[in-house]
Design goal:
Blueprint: H1 4-14, H2 17-35, E1 43-46, H3 49-52, H4 57-68, E2 75-80, H5 81-86, H6 88-101, E3 104-110, H7 117-123, E4 127-130, H8 132-135, H9 142-157, E5 161-164, H10 170-179, E6 183-184, H11 195-207
Parallel strand pairs: 1-2, 2-3, 3-4, 4-5, 5-6
């Protein structure tokens, strides 16, 4: 296994991230179409900065959705602040095209990059994801707690949902619930699994009354 931090920068530098990213999107959509036979599910997929600057991205995703039969609102794309700020003008154009398709957009790792409030208003994301570096410290660090609280209030004021990344214990979860966080993810809920294990879990969950 090769860590993504090793191969993704090389793929971006060589330009191979464009075909790799398209393959990932197609694989994700095909898997989602299969899982949607079990129940109403959506899937999040990360986009790299190079994909966001690809003028054919929206057309490529539209083709994938058409081929797989997946509804646009079932696909959620995650973008980082650093990816946006590399070229915010071209990013804004592509994001506008994706929104016209009805695809959900999430701003990932919020608070660790440039955190410009102007693009939050301009680009209209559906969700903000609080970076794990704040979540991991929030129960023992007053400043981290205040930042998480502020991000949640900001997102809700702008009518966005909030996702907390990297939840690892009950205390973090309880505090996030008190602050009004909408969604959580992290090892507290489960470790990463392969598609077969995920499908077994979905089938078991679907059978519960």
């Amino acid at each position: 296994m090769i860590n993504p931090l090793q191969f993704i920068p090389l793929a971006e530098e060589s330009g191979l991230i464009i075909p790799i990213g398209e393959w990932i999107l197609r694989e994700a959509a095909e898997q989602l179409a299969q899982w949607q036979r079990i129940g109403p599910l959506s899937m999040n997929v990360n986009l790299s900065v190079k994909q966001l600057s690809d003028p054919n991205l929206a057309k490529s995703i539209q083709s994938i959705l058409r081929d797989t039969g997946v509804a646009p609102e079932s696909l959620k794309l995650e973008l980082t602040e650093s990816a946006l700020m590399t070229n915010i003008e071209s990013a804004g154009k592509v994001i506008g095209e994706l929104r016209q398709l009805g695809i959900g957009l999430k701003l990932d790792d919020f608070g660790t990059g440039y955190s410009s409030l102007s693009y939050l208003q301009k680009l209209h994301f559906d969700s903000l994801k609080i970076d794990r570096s704040f979540v991991s410290r929030m129960t023992g660090d007053a400043d981290a707690h205040a930042i998480v609280d502020t991000i949640i209030k900001l997102a809700h004021t702008l009518e966005m949902t909030v996702v907390a990344e990297g939840i690892e214990d009950q205390r973090q979860l309880e505090e996030l619930v008190k602050l009004g966080c909408d969604i959580g993810q992290g090892y507290y809920f489960g470790r990463p699994v392969d598609a077969a294990a995920a499908e077994r879990f979905l089938n078991e969950d679907h059978k519960r009354p």
